[in-house]
Each structure stands twice: as C-alpha cells, then as structure tokens.
Write a structure and sequence with these properties.
This protein has a two-stranded antiparallel ribbon with strand order 1-4. A two-stranded antiparallel sheet has the order 2-3. The model has no long low-confidence stretch (mean pLDDT 87). Strand 2 and strand 3 (70-72) form a beta hairpin. It contains two helices and four strands; from the N terminus they run ααββββ. It is of the alpha+beta class and 82 residues long. The radius of gyration is 21 Å and the shape is elongated. The chain has one domain (4-78).
C-alpha cells in the first residue's frame, strides 16, 4: 500500500513543472540561480550521507530484530571468513 509520502514525492516534479510554466518569464534571475545552487547542495549532501553511512564491502547486514523484548536496529556485522 502506498503511503502519502510516496505519493507526495511522486507528485512533486509535476507540481514544480506547473509552477515553472505559470511563473516562467516572471521569475527573477536570482531566484533561478539560488534554486540551482540549493538543488546542487542537496544532491551533494545526499551523496555525502550515502558515503558516510555506507556498510563496508567486507561486512554483512543484520536486519532489525527483537532481543529480550527490545528492538535491536539493523546494523553491519563482520562476515565470517571460511
């Protein structure tokens, strides 16, 4: 079942396109360039976050589970070497 967040994220590009069509020529240059800069900063932040939080290639992933009534979040574990 789709959640509202997923539907909202799907509709964002269409809303931005309609806004661009309506505002088009009336938009000042500084607003366009600030949007471009902020978009690039957001993309760079996403890449950085992915690199910092990546699981190392020599590790495996242990999914979240319950131990002694407590939820243990998913985490990286060392793979056993044969």
């Amino acid at each position: 079942m789709l959640r509202f967040t997923e539907i909202g994220l799907f509709l964002v590009p269409f809303a931005l396109y309609v806004t661009w069509l309506i505002a088009g020529a009336k938009t000042p240059r500084w607003a366009v360039w600030s949007t471009v800069v902020l978009t690039l900063a957001m993309a760079a932040g996403t890449v950085w976050f992915g690199l910092v939080n990546a699981i190392p290639p020599d590790a495996g992933y242990e999914p979240a589970h319950i131990e002694h009534g407590q939820v243990v979040p998913g985490h990286a574990v060392a793979k056993p070497h044969p």
